[in-house]
Write the structure tokens for this entry.
Amino acid sequence: MRVDAAIFRAIACLLISSVAICASASDKKNQAKSAAAQKVDSGSFGIFIKGQRVATETFDIQQENSTSSVKSQLKQVAGSDPVTQKSDLQIASSGELVRYDWSQSSGGSLTVLPNNEFLVEKITTASSSKPAEQPFLMPNTSVILDNNFFIHREVLVWRYLAANCKPENGSMKCKQEPGEFGVLVPQDRTSVRVRLELVGEEKVTFHGAERNLLRLNLKSDEFEWALWVDDRDQFKLMRIAIPADNSEVVRD
């Protein structure tokens, strides 16, 4: 599987990949001391259960200097007082977690921070202002895949591609080999291991029309998802299928 070298470099420098690649890109820009935030991706996902839209996730990914910001807001469609959730994921170009924050309109929040080389989660409930702490013996380069924030899956795909694509004959060749990642799910206060594997190009119905998209399979001991990204548009996540829950996530 081959991808454009310029796109690969953008992905690699954007989120959690090779420091050397990012340094090379910085040299070409004369190592500017500061730069305006660069928007990498933004938009929204519709979340559907049995074909009915139940929520919308609005997201924005920006890169500024050596840090990438992944912000998302989830809002339920139904209900007289729909719950809104917000998340803010900050990642250093070296791959280390800077900070992760989550909150919801009905009360409660949490923060994940590096603690030396590991992670600590601080949880504040709606009934208590004093946060409880839970340590995780996980490296500070672990992946954040929180509940309901599907843009985190796009970040994981980019990380996987950056690790599995190498230069060859002027382009990037991607190995169709699985990658395993240690993952923290902050809202569940738990850690899991997931497996991501590039399947290849498939014809997919997207907003009523057929599109050629790249499929990846995301698995753990408890779930199996299919993800499709657009290799002609910076490998943006376009669709997720979750058969076990009769659920689907589609970029608007």
